[in-house]
Amino acid sequence: MKRLLIGLVKGYQHYISPLTPPSCRYHPTCSHYMVQAIEKHGAIKGTTMGLARIMRCHPFTDGGFDTVPDYFTVKRNLDDLDRQTYERVEAPDEIEQLLTVYHEKLNIRSEAVTLKQAAAELVSLEACPLDKISTEQLAELVSEEVGAISDWELYRVVHDKRSKAYFSQVAPGPLDKVWEPGTVGLLINEERGVYESNSVELLVDVIRQYGVTERDIQERSDRLLEYLYFLRETDVW
Description:
Elements: H1 2-16, E1 26-27, H2 30-41, H3 43-56, E2 64-65, H4 91-102, E3 108-109, H5 115-120, E4 125-127, H6 135-141, E5 152-157, H7 164-167, E6 185-189, E7 193-197, H8 200-210, E8 212-213, H9 214-219, H10 222-233
Parallel strand pairs: 1-2, 3-8
Antiparallel strand pairs: 4-5, 5-6, 6-7
Helix pairs in contact: 1-2, 2-3, 4-10
């Protein structure tokens, strides 16, 4: 039962979560909390804790850290109330654990590339100047503060032999408001990641192609940690 429930959550992380902008106000995210709670407390208690976490994750909460405690509770972990920022001094153990599991799946590059460069290695891109769409349209694509328009890059994927597979499973989404349905696109912000795509497979492949460098591994960089989180989220049992 534990394996089945965890598999369902992993399926959500892989297929559903990438279609929606980040919205969880806690660390770890609610889906990760659910998996960890089930692993630690079993199917019934773990699921109950996970559902309680989802109910208290709403726009009116302050958010912050809320890790799975060693005891059963449907309330926030009291030990985390004062932890509002990520403390990298506590990250090394987590990085080492994730490296042990996912080292063989790392895409190690000789040099770091941008997300745009990673995407261009997979498909041909046509830039869509953002001045051709209204600020209101961009705001509809982005669930948080838009910031500087120059930070965002919008691309239409050219339909050819390289991209053919991505066009076979196009999901309805916000990009349909910019182009006609069936068009595959990418909305990229180099600081925030591949923010939006109506092809889950392309989104995942771009981030996988993005990879890490040997220097990232040696320095245990933020890029490495984020990439390991990505591998964990897309590792469906």
